[in-house]
Amino acid sequence: MHELLIADDHPLYRDALAAMARRALAAVRISEASSVAELYAAVDARAYDLLLLDLGLPGAHGFSALVHLRALKPELPVLIVSGRSDPMSIRRALGYGAAGFLPKSLDAAAMVAALQNVLDGEIYDPIAVGAAPISAEERDLAAKLAELTPAQFRVLVGMCEGKLNKQIAWELSITEATVKAHVTAVLRKLKVSNRTHAVTLAAELALEPELARRVRQTEAE
């Protein structure tokens, strides 16, 4: 029995992925998540053979969830599912440790083949672009994110979305004092002095490579 987790915020696409998985595998149990909070709750509750992760999942913030999950659960293969299919996105996903990249534009037969390849331990690269080399700065950022607990990561996501501590506390069902403690821990682990620097650092993992540059420019103005 294969255990699969599908993390996508669109119910119809989750249904389509689930149907594809059942077509590819004789015995499979499927769990679903529609947000980063649900994703972390799921991976904490059960061991999975494969995670199908939408890059556009609310709270994922580009490649940050992929990087953090690969550090948190290195034994869990992650197959990225995305509406994007440009070579740079594929290179970066594979470079950050994804087991494959599944463009949503692929036909059903190709998706089934991709799923089977990844479960067989292979890397699925739809256009054979290969993984991008990870720079020293990216490796350093990945190491810092690896130190965050799931709760601290979710607080960082809230910070990146520009939310106040009380808003983060309400969304995560924790006290504002707990959020403040998590913020302090995030700043310490990322080795930055304030929230703006933490958000700037996290922007390095945005889907659009130029986003981090725009954030830095805005900060400097």
What does this structure look like?
The protein has two domains: 2-119, Response regulator (Rossmann fold), CATH 3.40.50.2300; 136-220, Winged helix-like DNA-binding domain superfamily/Winged helix DNA-binding domain (Arc Repressor Mutant, subunit A), CATH 1.10.10.10. It has eleven helices and five strands, in the order βαβαβαβαβααααααα. The protein has helices spanning 11-24, 36-45, 64-72, 87-95, 108-119, 136-146, 150-160, 165-172, 176-190, 195-202, 210-220, and strands spanning 2-7, 28-33, 50-54, 78-82, 100-103. A five-stranded parallel β-sheet has the order 2-1-3-4-5, sandwiched between helices. Helix 3 (64-72) links the parallel strand 3 (50-54) and strand 4. The radius of gyration is 17 Å and the shape is globular. The mean pLDDT is 87.
Count of DSSP H/I helices = 11
Residues in helix, %: 40-55%
- The separation of the N and C termini measures 55 Å
CATH fold type of the largest domain: Rossmann fold
Please state roughly what percent of the residues sit in beta strands, choosing from under 5%, 5-15%, 15-25%, 25-35%, 35-45% or over 45%: 5-15%
Q: Give the radius of gyration.
A: 17 Å
CATH A-level architecture of the largest domain: 3-Layer(aba) Sandwich
For the record, what CATH class of the largest domain applies?
Alpha Beta
The succession of helices and strands, N to C, reads: EHEHEHEHEHHHHHHH
What strand line-up does the widest sheet have? 2-1-3-4-5
The domain tally reads: 2
